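User: Structure tokens for this complex, please. No commentary.
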Amino acid sequence: MNKESRLKATINQRLTELGERERLKELLRAKLTECGWKDQMKAHCKEVIREKGLEHVTVEDLVVEITPKGRALVPDSVKKELLQRIRAFLAQHAA
Amino acid sequence: MKMEDMPLSGPDNTKLEALVNDIYSELVEDACLGLCFEVHRAVKQGYFFLDETDQESMKEFEIVDQPGVDIFGQVYNQWKNKECECPNCKRLIAASRFAPHLEKCLGMGRNSSRIANRRLASNNNMSKSESDQEDNDDLNDNDWSYGAEKRGEHRKSQTSPRRSKTLKHKNEFSPFQYNYNAGINYEMLGPDEVQSFLTTVSSFHGRKKSFQSQRCPQHTDEQRMAVRVFLLGPSAPVLPEADSVAVPESFDIPDGQALMSRLQWEDSPEISPSDSASSKASEEKSGSPFPIKRRTDKEPVSVSLTGTNHSDSRSLSTKKKKPKLTAPSISSIYDDLN
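Assistant:
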């Protein structure tokens, strides 16, 4: 376990250091907007807000409602591409 | 920092995969959080629902997603298959081809004169072999179109079968076609010809080869001499010969600065201090402003100095209408003359 967590920490550090994390973030954001995920989620947000009331909605409310649905709604192609990139990074910098 | 070697086999592989998935989940969660913050801010700042209006408008301008129709619901190639009757030739033309057809049919577009010229050139070439005297004369008169023959031959091979029809009409010059042929066929000139033509043109302006003289026909030499004396003082140089090739750029004005200051009559806001002193003293001196000039000249004085700018001649001619002078430099001119 210790080895794993150390490994994980190291990799995360590597990701951040080399700027790969930022790049992956941007890539993901762009792809999600492109495929319409963002608009879908926004529509869902509108429902939540209407439900809770415009004045009283909090960040927590939104997070709780949005995140699980968001995770589920990511298209397969986007998911696959990201996983691919992460694997490639690991192969290059870990092994 | 060197990593421990990760063998990609058995459980370790899954660990690696698990790691990959972990990283992926983090990234996705990050994106979701980002969206939440964005939305929350929009809600609190009040611009989240800005894109929504009343129900009616929403329904009216809803995005349409049907085949054959654009997102507004309009059919976009509605007029594609319609045909229009040309008012000139009475034929039925497809709508998208109607405007170009009208251009050619009425002879009024940018290209229609070009095409007409080309047709005529090819006509002339075709008829040359038949040695039609009139047509040859026409061609000979047109000195500048020496490129037209070359071009005509090339064009003939490329023309569509329709153009050969014009041969039937070779003796009927319709008015608009004939007008375009009388003169230089700019479009027919090859690149070398264009270059030589342009250099000849520039030498027109530079050295005035084709004009006999650069003098303006409105004035006589006497008038010119008088103006020169008036402006440059009694020691004015003699007029250059009419036929000499004078380059305007090298025209030497003996005292350019004084000349320019003299030429700035009423409309000169900047008055040099030395002049203003004398102006007050001798302002009453000027009775009629041009004692010498104005009595002899009936025409407005236009200075035929090729190097000066137009405002000078304009300001001089306006002098006639406004005899009251406020220009300070008049006194110095009178001193010279007297």
